What we know:
By secondary structure, the protein is mostly helical. It has helices at residues 3-18, 22-39, 42-58, 62-73, 81-98, 101-117, 125-137, 141-155, 166-179, 183-195, 201-216, 228-241, 248-260, 264-271, 282-295, 324-336, 339-349, 353-381. 71% of the residues lie in helices and 0% in strands.
Amino acid sequence: MSERELDRIRRRFSNAYRARDYAESARLAAEGLALAEARGDLATQTRMRVWLGESHWQRKESAEAIAALRPAAAAQPPADPTDVFSAISTLLNIALIEQPLAEIRALLAQGDAQLEASGRQHARHMLDLSRGELAARRGDWPAARAHFQDAYAHQRGDDEGPRFTLGSYLIKLAEASFMLGDRESLLDWSKALNEIPKEVEGDRLRAEQARLLCYRAGIAVPPGARGGAAATARRLLCWLEEIEGHRADYARDALHALLLQGDWLSVETWLDYPGIGDVPLMRGDLHLARARKELGLPMRDLDWPGSPPAADLAAHHPARPAKAPDDLAAARTQYEQQRDWARQEDARLETDHHQRRLDARLQQVETASGGSHQAASAERVEP
């Protein structure tokens, strides 16, 4: 095996990965791994396993990703410690979505130990981000924001080794601000995201996502806005159709923004798109939003805990109250169909966050149902 062959693979892998052609990047990493194994080059084997695992993960091929990454995460010198840590970091990303809490905590401990053993504590910001993500998935947003703030602070002092882009830290701070109802901080982080150089395509997506969070929070003109909430949401969703990888967070915020605009047709269309419509509570949210509109109730974002925009508090005349009971019943059915998912996620992460969130949605249905009965009574007594 010549070094020239490996250099060719490295260049082509980098180009394919940046272009989000993960099938090609996986093929190239597998080719490089075979060459490294033939020569007994452990360091190159480890790096190629990391690249192979990351490519499979971006294609949502978890089993293949884990199979490639586990040997890399346990590799000893002469393997590069940065490659070993990258393997642990990607395994953490997988575990946060799919594995039990004990496995996530074990990987966090493994990451801590690896950084200490290699004298690379300056890279701890990547683990800070994972700890924040774990807290967020368990519904502990104050803790999540604290970890994300640590990650942002620590990455500023790290100019070595692998790292996430600056936009990766800023969007997490924006999301935590949204979930805590902190409109001022959300606006600040969105402004920062808008102003930074966009290192990769993902950073441009994150800037759009931050604008959508602003729209969801009632900020009329987010930093860098082009065309309003509905236009931003549709633009992002069309963009997502063209790329592989994990898209649920982007899609979630776009779909919620469209619900606030009353664009039911667009939401229905993208809910049927694989990888974009995989937002567990969204079908129920669609029916509930329709019912609120039909009853003349103000449109509300179901995840935003802060005060609603003043315009949302204005009274509306019921549009089609007779249709509301059907949509409320459909919302109730859609939410109840997610009960098993909520229980499984809570069991996996040892929390009750998902069931509490689901119950809050169902309570919204019951509250709106009271309005539906009042509207129906009003219709009956009109001359």
